[in-house]
Amino acid sequence: MEKIIVEKSPPLKGTVRVSGAKNSVLPILAASLLCQENCVLEDIPVLKDVEVISEVLASLGANIKRDVENGCIQINASYIDNYEAPYELVRKMRASFLVMGPLLARKGKARISLPGGCAIGTRPIDLHLKGFHALGAKIDVGHGYVEASADRLIGNKIYLDFPSVGATENIMMAATMAEGITIIENVAEEPEIVDLANFLNSLGAKIKGAGTDTIKIEGVEALGGTKHTVIPDRIEAGTFMVAAALSGGDVTVENALSDHLKPTIAKLRECGVEVIENGDCIQVRAKNGINATDIKTLPYPGFPTDMQAQFMTLLSVAKGTSVVIETVFENRFMHVAELKRMGANIKIEGRSAIIQGIEKLQGTQVRATDLRAGAALILAGMVAEGETEIGDIYHIDRGYVDIENKLRSLGAKIRRET
Ligand SMILES: CC(=O)N[C@H]1[C@@H](OP(=O)(O)OP(=O)(O)OC[C@H]2O[C@@H](n3ccc(=O)[nH]c3=O)[C@H](O)[C@@H]2O)O[C@H](CO)[C@@H](O)[C@@H]1O
Ligand SMILES: C=C(OP(=O)(O)O)C(=O)O
Description:
The protein is an alpha/beta fold.
């Protein structure tokens, strides 16, 4: 079993480049099923999740050519001969469910394994299904699968009870070729939604309002091809920014859009960290330790749940007491038990974590319970006394490109062992 070993590291120094966003590339690759012509995607991160979604697309009949060295993928989905995504693929990655909307639009039929929950929550898909139903699809759920079919999807007005990222994306993709106008209200406003809408519009879709709480889609007959560069990964950028702050270092994060990182920047500044925004670079400097602060995760533009675990590590060694409230996922505190094994003083009360900052963490054996929990433990290992051994690192490889080499280039003492 592979593991990552982290030793107490010096303050991080230097420049690191952020890769393309996992949470953009996954829906965009799913959306490429809608294209009748070639699509070329650039700045594709080398991640396990990208491999899995590519496998899903290939199993549906799409032709995928990947150029890892140049970070490109070319997709030709002119011939789609299957409409089923089986359990073996969907269980590897929940985002596989995002092929349902495009398949419905393209084939009038989709059969996808129910994705189930994961370490951060039960993660239902009721809002996705509510949207497809409103567009006229017949939905059957049984034996662990969702089957949806429609001779023709018809535009409608859909209100999401919660601004779900995945439901917004799935419904938006399904509606691109529906007859007439679809209006989706209370949608997610994440930058990845805007990236997906831009991609779809460049194929010929007519989508307005992405990035606001209401999206309007005028259905078109067919979509063509395009070339698109995915946006930078704001969570990877935020993770390096926290790493810089935590180590008391001076790091420039390149290919980072500060517009997408407002809550992360604001919270770092509240912690007493210097953050300098300069074009698509963000410099993070910390010399005087970390002050405690309170955090509440919320849908965008609120503080991202995907940065909660990394900040929990930072606040574990802050001066004073912090409170972190997780409102997006009902069970996203699994990393707390691991941080406590490293000596952190954290108490959980319902959806709140009360963190009493301590002087030093201690290295030990811990387990990455999910992707961001894994990142939080790497960060903790960099400031812990002795050595930290992190297991179950396949979670980390789902969403961070070459994390140990990127951190090592900044001076971190980190290595991977098999
Ligand atoms: C691949 C991808 O982009 N993943 C991101 C996406 O996940 P994902 O798209 O799964 O997250 P959602 O925004 O859908 O989920 C947010 C909340 O809504 C609930 N919900 C969602 C759908 C639904 O039909 N019913 C329902 O109740 C979920 O259980 C959760 O409590 O957004 C999350 C929230 O920013 C991020 O943490 C994930 O990194
Ligand atoms: C929760 C995450 O991803 P996913 O939705 O793919 O599980 C994440 O990126 O932190």
